[in-house]
């Protein structure tokens, strides 16, 4: 039986004024009808770092992540503020397509379009009005290199994306996201459908991408969170309970619920 923990006792780090932030939420609450799925989530995400969101199934990690680029529009009611630079992107009048250009998302299951590798990358760019062949070719190469896929596919860009392995497809989805040159990349358990070798490739890719992008990743895999993230947020039953440097979370968790989760008592 799951112990009851106090939601009053949390350990949430904030950052000094001189730490540049890519994104910040203030008192975010999410409701699916009458289900209050996320309570008072106030977190800051430093630029060019990887932040991992961890917690048991149903704790609200995806709900929180999806709210960051308004993917919950029409599905849930999200209140509170989501600061991207000086703009509260949770305001109804902001352009959500524009937001998603800056805050891209990669999903759990690789979901390439049923088109060629090249087309997967340039589809959205064309929709943005980029027509110049040279520019498109450069973006294809840059994005595939960024996602550490270029060497494996450069001679087969017209091959169907669906013929790639699962791990390659996921890196193609990352390439598709970074082709839009976002600032922030949200990843919802991007490795859960991948084998260990593909997982290592994706993790290496993320470590490289961090130099250019801010990354927020949901993962069930605590070893993965420990390997790749600078800070970690632990979610429990729709509450952010602890947000600390990753080394602290795994070696010296601050509150009982995190200690129990990390030590495998539940989840
Ligand atoms: N589309 C939806 N409609 C209604 N309720 C939802 C929806 N998505 C999530 N929920 C509810 O919100 C709560 C949090 O779910 P969420 O998927 O965010 O958790 P999670 O921590 O990401 O779980 P998992 O690790 O299993 O993906 C759960 O009670 C879930 O049933």
TrEMBL record:
Residues 23-262 form the ABC transporter domain. InterPro entries: AAA+_ATPase (IPR003593), ABC_transporter-like_ATP-bd (IPR003439), ABC_transporter-like_CS (IPR017871), P-loop_NTPase (IPR027417), PstB-like (IPR005670). It holds the Pfam family ABC_tran. Gene3D superfamilies: P-loop containing nucleotide triphosphate hydrolases. Keywords: ATP-binding, Cell membrane, Membrane, Nucleotide-binding, Phosphate transport, Translocase, Transport. CDD domains: ABC_PstB_phosphate_transporter. GO terms for molecular function: ATP binding; ATP hydrolysis activity; phosphate transmembrane transporter activity. This is ABC-type phosphate transport system, ATPase component. The lineage of its organism: Bacteria, Bacillati, Bacillota, Bacilli, Lactobacillales.
């Amino acid at each position: 039986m799951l112990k009851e923990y106090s939601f009053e006792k949390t350990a949430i780090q904030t950052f000094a004024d001189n730490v540049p932030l890519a994104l910040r939420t203030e008192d975010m609450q999410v409701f699916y009808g009458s289900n209050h799925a996320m309570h008072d989530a106030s977190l800051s995400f430093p630029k060019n770092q990887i932040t991992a969101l961890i917690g048991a199934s149903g704790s609200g990690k995806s709900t929180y992540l999806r709210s960051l680029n308004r993917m919950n529009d029409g599905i849930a009611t999200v209140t509170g503020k989501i600061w991207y630079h000086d703009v509260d992107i949770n305001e109804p009048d902001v352009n959500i397509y524009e937001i998603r250009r800056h805050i891209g998302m990669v999903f759990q299951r690789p979901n390439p379009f049923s088109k060629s590798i090249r087309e997967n990358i340039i589809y959205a760019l064309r929709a943005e009005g980029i027509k110049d062949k040279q520019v498109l070719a450069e973006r294809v190469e840059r994005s595939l290199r960024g996602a550490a896929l270029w060497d494996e596919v450069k001679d087969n860009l017209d091959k169907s994306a669906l013929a790639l392995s699962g791990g390659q497809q996921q890196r193609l989805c990352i390439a598709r996201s970074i082709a839009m040159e976002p600032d922030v990349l949200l990843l919802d358990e991007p490795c859960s459908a991948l084998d260990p070798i593909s997982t290592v490739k994706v993790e290496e890719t993320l470590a490289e991408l961090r130099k250019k992008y801010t990354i927020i990743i949901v993962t069930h895999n605590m070893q993965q969170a420990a390997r790749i993230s600078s800070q970690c947020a632990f979610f429990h039953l729709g509450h952010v309970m602890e947000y600390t440097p990753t080394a602290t979370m795994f070696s010296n968790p601050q509150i009982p619920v995190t200690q129990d989760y990390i030590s495998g008592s539940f989840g």
